[in-house]
Amino acid sequence: MAIPGIVRWRQVGATLARRMLAWPRLPATLVLAALVTLDATLAAARPGGGQDFSGGGGGGGDDGGVWLVINLAIYLLELCVDYPAVGFPLLGLVIIGAVVWYHVNPNRTTKAAVRDLETSALRGLNPDLRQLADRDPQITEEGFTSEVAKIVLAVQQAWNGGDMRPARRLLSDGVYNRFTALIAINRARGVRNMMAESTIERPRVVAVERDAFFDTVHVRVAGRARDADVPVAADPATQQKLLGKAKLANYVEIWSFLRRPGAQTKAGQTVIEGRCPNCGAEQPVGDVVECPFCHALVNSGEYGWVLAEITQASEWRPSSAGDRIPGLEEMRAVDPQFNRQQIEDRASFLFWKWVEARVTRNPAAIRKLSTERMSGFVAREAAAGGIGGGQQTMERIAVGSADLVGVEPGDEGGMDRALVRLRWSAAYAPKAPPVPATNVLVLVRKTGVTTKFGLSGDRCKNCGAPVVTATDSPKCDYCGAEMASGQQDFVLDEVAAPTAVLLHQPGKRRPAAPRPAPAAPAMTGGGFVIAPLPMMMPPMPVGGAPGAGGLAPPAPGFAPQPATAGFAPPAPPAPPPPAATPPAAGPVSPTPPVAPPPGAQPPTPQTQAPAAPPASPPDGPEGEADKGAPDAIPPWALPDMSNPQERAALLSRMAVIAAADGVVTAEERRLLKKCSKRWSVPFSTIEPILRTGVAALQTLGPPENPQRFLMGLVAAALVDGKVDRRERRLLDGVAHNLGLEPDVVPGLITAMTEWRNRQAGARG
Ligand SMILES: [Zn+2]
Ligand SMILES: [Zn+2]
Prior knowledge:
Elements: H1 9-22, H2 25-45, H3 65-82, H4 84-104, H5 106-121, H6 141-160, H7 173-188, E1 191-200, E2 204-210, E3 215-231, H8 236-245, E4 248-259, E5 306-312, H9 328-334, H10 340-359, H11 364-367, H12 372-383, E6 395-408, E7 415-427, E8 435-446, E9 491-496, H13 619-625, H14 644-659, H15 666-678, H16 687-692, H17 706-717, H18 725-737, H19 744-763
Antiparallel strand pairs: 1-3, 2-3, 3-4, 4-5, 6-7, 7-8, 8-9
Helix pairs in contact: 1-2, 2-3, 2-4, 3-4, 7-10, 14-15, 15-18, 17-18, 17-19
The structure holds zinc ion (2 copies).
């Protein structure tokens, strides 16, 4: 444990005042000199540590303390001159103290731990394209990057024109739909995003990855441009004038290209050159992705490189999880072609369609791509005037990453599930800063359906026609094949908080006793997920009687989170205690779903609950779900502290919790500020949440499983191996606001520390 967190000199003063009463005079002076000087060392060490975020972050010094420090320093020096026998030993003590303090200071250790995680997430990248030479002897860095440069310009040009069709053949369906959804969303707002004076540096390969399904090349694209949202209706001259006013800004992105192993580099025979990468025939003008001559899908990755992801450089990570994804082996046993890249591209595609449907209030956009309960929900939301305009707008939406975290092959006649964790952000008012969020997308398909190869998933698997989303029908508009039920491919079933999703463990209903961790190879993922994955951690020590899940009655002033349209359908009324009622989970479920009986469809909601805040405290459904052994949190639902966006998302959720009762106390504010510094997250990210309080709840709807959320927070606090006093206060505060018993916190700290130690043991 660290020295109690004496960080600000004011608190030092307070501690000191108490000590002075008891201690003899000289030691008291010693303590004073030491503590204050140490704090000065700290103040000097803090700013300018390589933060990822620009702006925000730092801010404010330790007001007033500086003078005292200077005076004491002068005093100390004088002492050295006048009474060297006292002065020099004292100076020595101070220096030793400073060094010790510097190394155990919780701010520094937390920051350092976070930084270490960040660097280790990026360690061991191999940027050498020649490692693909065994499969493709013709590939060269020179040829590849000059092709990428052309692709970047072509994509930017299409974006600038507000029409992505000219670039469609270069893009996976996930990326293409992301662009078109953004354009549609902007159009609904009456604007178009444009760029001017765009220049790019020569692209550089930063990492090459390969597995049995795809070769992946990540390329750094750095450039400079002005960009601005201009009115769609404005004439070109006005648009240019508005653009001219925008700031000329630098950006660095990672563009990830995928290709099927075995595809060959053929000079001049590429999509960007207007050729079919398979047969070399010249392609007609237009956005048809099927070559009219050889019928190859040119953006499937089967024959040539296709752009499958664009990520902010600060958020980019190599695919750390690799193939070590729970359930992946089981899924491959029944569907050998199932692969991570394709499902992630599909998830990104579905996510953007979901966003588009909500923001443009056009449920048809998701009708063929989501289960009935999900599309029904979006339709009801649109009919009720939800998200899509006015105060409920969603703007500047950005996806940081999409990672497959779990797969569950279904029982016969059931549904396969795939869980994809998505990091994204959106602003919910025109001038507001974007609020980061992490969600898990639950994708489902009928058991027995297998993966058809290729990244070109936006088409009917029955007849090959493109999925036209203009009609509000769950069936293919050409051949009438059923699509929304998951008979062809994965469809979207749920967008949930990571802590609210449970794996079903198909065929094995959730066991009453904790299961031993499956023998999986060690993981190298960021954060805490390093040792074999315990799918079920030992039961967490939680207070309270079984059945109540350890949940205390809501704390005074605790306001249950009002339901957010689309995000958080209100919790269903608490089921009668003895009955084993399936939860009426909405598409965005606050309740961990219960495994459906074998052979059954997932439960459909009986009724969509009305859009009013639930009157009952949130212990009804949670209590039910946590009956018996409380479910442990799967490692992927723990916050990944190596990811800046995730740290920001976690801080935002804490801010929402702090603001939920309508009052943000000075203490809460101070602790959150401290947290933001330690995690290198600009405080400005959460400032509006703290200011606007409950209104900001709409931005972060997905209700958490409170206990699991707290577990994640404990893990975050343990990033440097210990929970110091401030972190403890923060945890206590969050637990209180979540309505959890106070003794949950020490129990979780013990359990998570043990878990961490076990992981460290398994690693070393
Ligand atoms: Zn062809
Ligand atoms: Zn069809």
